[in-house]
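Hello support,

Our group uses your service weekly, and this is the first time we've seen a run hang past the timeout. The protein is Aspartate aminotransferase family protein. I'm not sure whether the cause is the sequence or the server load. Input pasted verbatim:
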Amino acid sequence: MQTSPSRTAHWQSLDVHHHMHPFTDHVELANEKPMVIERAEGVYIYDSEGRQLLDGMAGLWCVNVGYGREEIVDAVARQMRQLPFYNTFFKTTTPAALELAHKLSTLTPEGIDYFFFSNSGSEANDTNIRLAQSYWQLLGRPERKVIISRNNAYHGSTIAAASLTGMASMHDIPACPIDGIVHIANPDWYACAQDMTEDEYGLQTAQALEAKVLELGAENIAAFFAEPIQGAGGVIVAPKTYWPEIQRICRKYDILLVVDEVITGFGRTGAWFGAQTFGIQPDLMTLAKGLSSGYLPISASGVSERVAKVLRSKPGRFPHGYTYSGHPAAAAAALKNIEIMERERLVQQVGERTGPCFQNALARLLDHPMVGHVRGHGLMACVVFSPDKTRRAAFNPLGGFATKVRNHCFANGLVTRAVGDGLVFAPPLVITEAQIGELVHKLRKSLDEVLAHGV
Ligand code: PMP
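Update from on-call engineer: The timeout came from a worker crash unrelated to the input. Re-ran successfully.
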């Protein structure tokens, strides 16, 4: 048998020669070589050299019940033996997809009772665009098709979801953004509003929606898409004045409110969904990631009675779907994942204990000379660095310092991700208070090391 280092070198060589990575600069990667992640247990991942890292990102904001859940493996194996696949296109259905749709209806906000399955968050957002536009079309209002999204939003990587996304780098390809999707300001109080209270700023940014509606004409608008907390954009938590005003505007102008809960869903904010944490009543929801804790790919569009009634009562086919919509093995994984979350009361645990513990432990980093801002909710957070805290100054180049701290975190056995001048965290929901202590200790140590080596 080969020894570990040569196994690692073998995999790294295969990676260089045959593998194209998402969201990666391949020139940079060829020089640095990827870390090969071989196994995982609980909140820890292990690389091919046997190094243990605390996974402060739950995979990619998704492994909510933690790694190594044999029960999910068994549930999937049982399902695959019985029925590995069947489609739901042609007046057929499968028990696993039905049980999952029913289970979801008991957890999602009041009125969200129907579920359309896809395989990824991006696909579920594409589906939601089509559901929203079809709704208006079926009501005889086809001109109501413009979608409003927000700056700095992340909604996915298909051409439509990337167009919904509000990051300039995602629009830097000829296909994007597609027509009919517009963006408004996002409520990033720390970065944008030194001279205003959070509440004032929350109201002002929410009113950007009303201004856009009046500019384009409500009669042309289908829906407003938003994450309850912007995740990949840097865990931007809206001031408390924001969501009530957004809800008011959507109601006043009869605009469908679509909440993208791909990250905030399934306990991340201390409730089953961010919509419940922030008192939002959506017309459509986007669910993925924590739905199956990433054990198999599956996503869903949650559809309200208002939208479902129209789509289900008019004759004619909704011309949309994926081969693997409602895949039985993925649905079985999701069902078992939810059963574990309920049995272990993980959502309550995040809401009452580990969420507040995590936010308080990170907030104590504000005594560090380089930490300018800490924000988050439940088990998602961003720690923002600044070379001059009183002015909330940014680093030049933006993110240079955060990237160094992130590299030291990796070397110290902690996975995190740099976003602008911040580091974002979203550990598995099973993280204990002691492991939260370990995470914050490793972060502070890494920060001190970067400071000691000179900024
Ligand atoms: N919406 C949000 C809020 C996300 O964070 C993501 C992925 N990070 C997506 C959609 C896209 O999901 P996927 O990568 O599964 O397509």
